[in-house]
TrEMBL record:
Belongs to the RNA polymerase-binding protein RbpA family. The lineage of its organism: Bacteria, Bacillati, Actinomycetota, Actinomycetes, Micromonosporales. It comes from Micromonospora tarensis. Its cofactor is Zn(2+). The gene is rbpA. This is RNA polymerase-binding protein RbpA. Binds to RNA polymerase (RNAP), stimulating transcription from principal, but not alternative sigma factor promoters. HAMAP family: RbpA. It holds the Pfam family RbpA. It comes from the Bacteria. Forms a complex with the RNAP catalytic core and with free principal sigma factors. Keywords: Metal-binding, Transcription, Transcription regulation, Zinc. Gene3D superfamilies: RNA polymerase-binding protein A. InterPro entries: RbpA_sf, RNApol-bd_RbpA.
Amino acid sequence: MPSGNVIRGARVGSAPTRPDERHQPAPRQNVTYWCRNHHQVDIRIAADAEPPTVWDCPRCGLPAGQDAQNPPGRVRAEPYKSHLAYVKERRTAEEGEALLNEALAALRRRRGE
Ligand SMILES: [Zn+2]
């Protein structure tokens, strides 16, 4: 039957040609982290990748490090504050106004006003 020959011909041409590459997984390395709650976190990353210094513990959310005896502390103990928030902590609004006036005066002097 001619149709049988056509099917066999198609199968020969479409056979996978490089089975070795398909079955060998990329090389991996195991990296172990510990958080402050003594949770052990094992991750697998590509062998040629640089392991991150800190990994978030999936059990408690604390940052975990590769040194079991010295896990990292909380990265962010207090909520994020903008630069302006820190400035406002150090200076009152009146001080800010005085500084602004000083700066404006200096600017005007430079301009020769
Ligand atoms: Zn943990």
